[in-house]
């Protein structure tokens, strides 16, 4: 079970890095625009879950829905409200918020499957 979480994290992180490589070579599209937003919460929450499981020595520890919702709200507020207000490089986008929500849902589904 612990290995499957590591494998899922590795696959998500590989896709995440691949999208940044595509952006570096000036490929602009849906893949580079929203896949990273979709994968950001599952990657961050998976790392958090792995750290908490190791710290508490409890391989069956799961993040509560309130932690996932808090992370979702935090990411939405920081990246879609605060940063676009202060820095011109960031833009607020409704589709990013949808991608964050889908990413949170993806993490909840992955977490349930890896009980």
Could you describe the 3D structure shown?
With 115 residues, the chain is mainly α. It has one domain (2-113). Helix content is 80%, strand content 0%. The protein contains 4 helices and no strands. Helix 3 packs antiparallel against helix 4. The protein is globular and about 45 Å long.
Could you provide a short overview of the structure?
Helices cover 80% and strands 0% of the residues.
For the sheet with most strands, the description reads: none
Structural class: mainly alpha
The helix count comes to 4
Strand content: under 5%
Percent helix range: over 70%
Q: How many β-strand runs?
A: 0
* C-alpha geometry: globular
**Distance N to C terminus:** 7 Å
Low-confidence stretches: none
Radius of gyration: 15 Å
Taken together, the total number of domains comes to 1
Mean pLDDT over all positions: 87
- Helix-strand sequence: HHHH
Chart the SSEs and their pairings:
Elements: H1 2-24, H2 30-56, H3 65-86, H4 94-113
Helix pairs in contact: 1-2, 2-4, 3-4
């Amino acid at each position: 079970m612990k290995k499957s979480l590591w494998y899922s994290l590795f696959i998500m992180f590989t896709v995440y890095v691949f999208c940044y490589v595509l952006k570096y070579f000036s490929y602009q599209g849906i893949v580079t625009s929203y896949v990273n937003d979709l994968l950001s919460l599952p990657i961050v929450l998976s790392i958090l879950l792995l750290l908490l499981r190791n710290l508490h020595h409890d391989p069956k520890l799961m993040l509560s829905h309130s932690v996932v919702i808090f992370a979702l709200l935090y990411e939405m507020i920081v990246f879609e409200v605060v940063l676009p207000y202060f820095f011109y490089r960031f833009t607020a986008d409704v589709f990013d918020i949808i991608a964050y929500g889908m990413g949170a849902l993806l993490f909840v589904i992955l977490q349930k499957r890896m009980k």
